[in-house]
Amino acid sequence: MEKEKGENLTGNGNTIIGNIITILSVTLMIFGLLYVSNLLDFFTDHFTMVPYCALVLMSVLILVFLIFPAKGGGPKEKPRWYDIIFIIMSICGAGYLAFFPSRWEPLLIRGTTTLLEVVLCLMLVVAIIEATRRTVNLSMALIASFFVIHLIFGSHFPGIFLTFDFRLERIASIFYLRAEG
Questions:
Q1: How far apart are CA 116 and CA 106, in angstroms?
Q2: Torsions phi, psi of 39, nearest 5?
Q3: Fewer beta carbons under 10 A from the terminal one: N or C of the chain?
Q4: Measuring CA to CA, how many Å separate 18 from each of 15, 90, 96, 100?
Q5: What is the pLDDT of residues 143-159, one digit of tens each?
Q6: Which residues, 6+ apart, have CB-to-CB distance to 66 below 8 Å?
Q7: 67 three-state secondary structure
């Protein structure tokens, strides 16, 4: 099967989006190689795990929302308005961790968060669950959603699901500010 003129790897005719996808993918690969080989230390004082993971997560989420359509089917022609919203949520949530470590590192040391970190954490969790729905399936997104809801409302669950309620600040501290989250 021959590709039509202007068609790119994503299967659509929008070469601008295809170029963005290609550039972002290659940049992500080069960035990963630089990080693993410790060559980023020549460009920065010290590049820690959290900003690195945040940049990788942001790039992957942007790629997911550009490549995978919200509804089933083949490749899409251009990003829809809700794709742009999810991309903005991904950039804001992960970009804060990547580009403003001096703002959140003292909070991590104290073990606290502010309303800003809570909101950005929730935005990023919603974007990750939506990306999971698009790339894996609805079942996996529902399972992830259940465990997030379980953290917040655990004391209202019956039987073996009964647990402590975790405050949103604590959830944001665990999910958002740590490399394990």
A1: 14
A2: -75, -15
A3: N
A4: 5, 19, 26, 30
A5: 999 988 888 888 888 88
A6: 10, 17, 20, 21, 79, 83, 87
A7: helix
